[in-house]
Known about the structure:
Blueprint: E1 6-9, E2 17-18, H1 20-31, H2 42-52, H3 58-68, H4 74-82, E3 85-87, H5 91-100, E4 104-109, H6 113-127, H7 132-136, E5 139-142, H8 143-146, H9 153-163, E6 170-174, H10 177-186, E7 189-192, H11 203-206
Parallel strand pairs: 1-4, 1-6, 4-5, 6-7
Antiparallel strand pairs: 2-3
Helix pairs in contact: 1-4, 2-3
Amino acid sequence: MSSVKTIIFDFGNVLFDLDFKGCYQNFKNLLNIEWEDNDVPAIIQSANDRLERGEINEETFIWQFQQINNKANPRDILKAWNSLLVGFPKERFSLLESLRKDYQLVLLSNINSIHEAYIHQYFASNFNLLDFEERYFDFVFYSHHIGMRKPEERIYEHVTQSIGAHKEEILFIDDNEANILAAKKFGWQAVLHDPTSDIVFNVYKYLGL
């Protein structure tokens, strides 16, 4: 992929480690319901999609969980929601610094205001880092700020135009197959990342180096 000039990273499960199984178990316990890995309650999935587009506020989102169990405390709901976010291994900072010398780096994430705030607090508390996005990326696109989310075609168009890149010179790395297929259909180069394998050991392979 010698033509690559821009690398677009997904955030969760590519750069920032996630624990879906643990998060689902926490909600199963909190709400007293069955919540399987691939069977998120429809009311929650819909609310998540809307929160990720910035269409609803945090209070409305929390209220959806209380429709399932009205005894659930908002603080406990937030704690369970944030339990999805595991951490950012420090060697990935060095990876981004190295890559940015040769490539334009972009962060493109389906994310929400609750997780964004938690991540900022995490970087500040664990690394005394207050400017993660600005320090390591040329552009950052969070779904709840731009009102669209992957794998909607319009988000790939928006990002391409905003960063001033040619489609064929973009490499997109994501852990979600639907997002990858949509990116390829749009014209980006794209690679499906396995979250069980560290991005540090794979990114140069993805680049064909």
